[in-house]
Amino acid sequence: MSVFLEVEHVTTYRYNKPVEFSTHHVMFRPRPAHDIRVLSSTLEVSPHSIQYWKHDVFSNSVAVVEPRVPADMLQFRARFVIEHFGVKNLELPLAPEAENYPFQYGDEDRLDLATFLPQQYPEDQAALREWVAQFLPRRGTIHTRDILGNLNAAIRGDFRYQSRDAMGTQRPAETLDRRSGTCRDFALLMMEVVRGLGIAARFVSGYLYDATLDTTNPPVIRNTGLQQGARQIESRDDPLVLGGGATHAWLHVFLPGAGWVPYDPTNTLVGGADLIRVAYTRKPEQAAPVSGSWTGAASDFAGMDVAVSVKRIGQQVEPALAR
What we know:
Number of helices: 5
Low-confidence stretches: 217-239, 319-323
Mean pLDDT: 88
Structural class: alpha+beta
Radius of gyration: 21 Å
Distance between the termini: 19 Å
CATH topology of the largest domain: C8orf32 fold
Helix content: 10-25%
CATH architecture of the largest domain: Roll
Number of domains: 2
């Protein structure tokens, strides 16, 4: 079954008088693969700008925007329609040698994963090791998926989600000490803990579908085999999620056999059709949705607003197999 989602993302910078802008880099566009298909994509920029697209070092899609005139507002307005097929990640088989922790990557995997194995905050590792010890057996092994699932659940259950408008991410040790943070903080914390266990992980930015913020009542499109495109309305009962209405962050963990598996410690998700990835990077700073600068006095800056809307606009259900 696939789900059709419409994403609208508007970021607006306001100034007290016209200022000049440098080249900006924008990462709003969902990253397609076997589980996500981008059906339409638009990016409107005000004031008048020149745009072109490129791939960064991680092959994320980046819009390069060159504003041509001074202005008292810089706005990026993007709209995407995607088809999300979702993946049942917990059913993906692990390679036999990776079913239990600890395990070792093969030589080829270690070479390819070298960027995503080192910890970014070595001075925080003592605190992280002390915290993760409760999830590890005193002797023997533990199922690899169990330790990752326990970490994912513990952050959601023991830490308080707290939105923050300020840019940047808390240090992992600070998140541990505060027992609170944003989705970026939680993703970084789990990523650093996982890397400390010798398992490759990468930071992921994107969007989150939250049914409680969706005022639409989308149709379910059933392929009956007799009437293509026949429609039927069905109700949904989605669990409460945190982090909707803004950009979202989680992580990917590389498990031999299953590949890159998404974990969202903010919501205890392991993939599914509610996470819409835009970019993955080695560290959070590389996944900024907008980066650039402007020329003027510090007092000229009047503020920034970000609005993200994710709506379900349809659902495709495959026909049952004949018996």
